[in-house]
Amino acid sequence: MAAWFGLLTGCGELVWLGVQKFIRHDRIYFGSYIAWLTPVVCIGVFVLLGGLLALIVRCWARWQNWRNALTYLAFFACLSWLLLLPKLKDFAALLLAAGLAFQFGRLANLPQARLRGWLLRSAQLMVGLLLVTTIGVWSWQRIQQRQFAAQLPAPVANAPNVLLLVLDTVRARNLSVYGYARPTTPRLAEFAQTGVLFERAIATAPWTLPSHAGMFTGRYPHQLHAGYRIPLDGVSPTLAEVLRNGGYLTAGFVANTIYCNAENGLARGFAHYEDYQASASELLLGSSLTRALVNNSAVRRLTGYHDIVSRKSAADINRAFLAWLRRQDARPFFAFLNYFDAHEPCLPPAPFDTQFGVRVDHGQFRTRHELRNAVRGGRQNESAAQTQADVSCYDGAIRYLDEQVGALLAELKRRGMLKNTLVIITSDHGEAFGENGHYTHGDSAYLTTLHVPLLLSFPPSVPAGRRVVTPVTLRDLPTTVLALTAANNATKFPGLSLSRYWQTASSSLADEPPLRSEVNIALTLVREYHVGMQMPVRSLVKDQLHYLQNYDGREELYNFITDPLEQHDLSSSEAGRMQLELFRRSLANGID
What we know:
CATH class of the largest domain: Alpha Beta
Number of domains: 3
Low-confidence stretches: none
Strand order of the largest sheet: 5-4-6-1-9-13-2-14
CATH architecture of the largest domain: 3-Layer(aba) Sandwich
Largest sheet: 8 strands, mixed
Number of helices: 16
Distance between the termini: 63 Å
Structural class: alpha/beta
Number of strands: 19
Mean pLDDT: 91
Shape: globular
Helix content: 25-40%
CATH topology of the largest domain: Alkaline Phosphatase, subunit A
Strand content: 5-15%
CATH superfamily of the largest domain: Alkaline Phosphatase, subunit A
């Protein structure tokens, strides 16, 4: 009976996930393996619950009747389904589950032979449906992969590989290759000697989805349909699509499974895309009961485990990419790797967790753990010592990333692949640690969250050891890739190739328009503002100046060379007011 209830619960959860994904068109944060994983996990959980009931019956024989068993198991089944409703409070879920279970227990009034037969027949039906669904999903994926491979045209002769490495949430300010005092990036410093480092690269948005979408399409956030609960639409072509149409093998390996997953539209054009993978840790997320248990605050404090369950490390991403690479033929590839180790909760492995200071005790903070995410509250109330500990932890995570990126590049060099590979290392956005009163990212457009690293290396076309001080935008990356790979494709991306910064005199670039970034903070602060509200913050960077136009119309102006932390607003000065007018005109005229 316990196994039957587990099967029923698993099927019910799958139906709910199907409604979310295919009817409500919402994200479920699981891969196709969930078709078999959820029923298996639910059966295992209920068998354990049945075993507990068996022990109770051995101690108290009066519990041994069908009604008690049905009520007991139905309670956990109903609770599992009610936990899927995010707006339902836990206490209400418990009360509703108890009431529904009491009604379910009335089935015990049926003749036992009839009840057993009904349980058996319904179990056979559910197992059959699950097998058909699982086999169908598996077959569809295999057919799709074969179609991708069969439709690939011949690539351009001697076409180079393209490797895009995105260090999620890494700001340029904390990299020693950018002048930071702590030695956080010695391996990147070695890599910089082989190509071009852009000292003032600016992301198009201060959070993940629109920034990645900009790197893939060459478009600004206001030109894209992508945001909170809104995946990237299919209007603008992506870099992966264009390179695939040019004969490239395309693959993505992402650790940020919140906003870089396939459900957010970023997988478009990739023949192979790894976001969620079946694993032992995924078993803990396979049912709503186990998810509620492992993400409970008391359980977290008791176990001392504060990381996101099933989070991928940089080493995991490297292994997955290299394993995929071993299975490929001689075609050129475009591979996108997203590393998530510097993102909150910041938990670098030893010895990097204490390399720059005392290890952060995450147990002392109020953290809400969710599926694929963890949100720490009360950052604005931290002491200066706690903030410094956070920065030290962040630096340790960057040092770990640096080591893993260096190891990956060393392996590719050992295989003789780097000499014909365009390598791009960048970040989607930075992170704030109390500067300008902000923490984390996504709720402001200061340079703490917009100034990111950008390094390019490609020996045949990119000069070695060059540093570019002129501000550049990440929206130019797709055009740059097409220009450097000479991809034979009619598709053109917005923006210009970054190669102009080492091929053209700097004086001829002086008339280029300001670099634009933007964020609608109502989309990233959904608990404070209603979804659908428009509260845009716009940013323009030109020469040494950074202009901000806030959602309430208030303007700010900073010289980020003399004032890198943007503490001294120049908008009220006479010279500043003249510059404000120029930036206003740029916004009014539009920047395409």
